[in-house]
């Protein structure tokens, strides 16, 4: 059974996902300048709020800014507002989130896939300069056709567009967040390491039956722990377990747990993928950790659905574990032929001729 991996990878699969500063040519470092993010709406619901993870130069806490949404014209902001701009807000003291800024009037209904521009401009207060500036921070991975533009005080086109995705989110009137809230490379989770009865893993739910053939994750390894086991639960019921020998696991590397046969899991049921040491072995100096991305809890739904969450706990009943809202586990199920998975008969069927295995993650699956 051949494995097929998607060419467009989600942030969860990119170990190099990290924040970066945009080219200095896109710094907003003079009073008449503006910067803009080309955003492709994934919802028709109006945009109501915007938050940006900014790169700050010098001192701009005495400078006031606004953020607004404009329509697109020839691959640049048109000057035509959708809704009205936010109230003024003061520059922040250091690199980080500016905090959600509400548009005074929302954008009105959007067209999915038709780009709009999120535009930041100075409105009053202290002047900007080459040493006191505001800029977008960007991800190491570009998403789709997104790009950034810089207005030099005269036009949007003298400065070449930057093919980059900013660390920023928009909020829609239906409550959905869309964007890119991960600000750093993945690291060992902030929860208790995997040893003794300590467990780490992933909770998820599908709207149809699925057959899981393997689990892909990234781990940290310290000392000489016991073998690492991966256990699949349907609710509190253990369905399958397998292990990888400690000797073959490498610190900060990927691990793939292949199952001897695919595990059929029920629709509309909490599924748990849990890591544990064999025989509850190890200690605080001989352990594993599931690597994760730290994320602003307010924006986690921009990355994964509400029923796709990292969990941590002790013992063997994952339904009692704590659901994490500020970390996204680097853990993905590999599903057998998804055409077969959509068959709701007891054993599945009808799609077997298609064959193949596909890595499934929140960027490539509808999760109920």
What brief labels describe this structure?
2 domains; mainly beta; eight-stranded mixed sheet; Jelly Rolls; single chain
Question: Helix share of residues?
Answer: under 10%
Q: Give the structural class.
A: mainly beta
Q: What form results from the Cα inertia axes?
A: elongated
What integer value in Å does the Rg equal? 23 Å
- CATH topology grouping of the largest domain: Jelly Rolls
Overall pLDDT score: 86
Question: From the coordinates shown, what is the CATH architecture of the largest domain?
Answer: Sandwich
What's the CATH class label of the largest domain?
A: Mainly Beta
Total domain modules: 2
Strand content: 35-45%
The stretches of 5 or more residues where confidence is low (pLDDT under 50) are 1-16, 348-368
The counted number of beta strands is 28
- Oligomer state equals single chain
In whole angstroms, the N-to-C terminal distance is 28 Å
Largest sheet: 8 strands, mixed
Number of helices: 1
Order of helices and strands: EEEEEEEEEEEEEEEEEEEEEEEEEEEHE
Descriptive notes:
The structure is a single chain. Helices cover 1% and strands 45% of the residues. The chain is elongated and about 65 Å long. By secondary structure, it is mainly beta. The strands form four sheets. Strands 1, 16, 18, 21, 23, 26, 27 and 28 form an eight-stranded mixed beta sheet that branches. Strands 2, 4, 7, 9, 10, 12, 14 and 15 form an eight-stranded antiparallel beta sheet that branches. A hairpin with a 4-residue loop joins strand 5 and strand 6 (77-81). The protein is built from one helix and 28 strands.
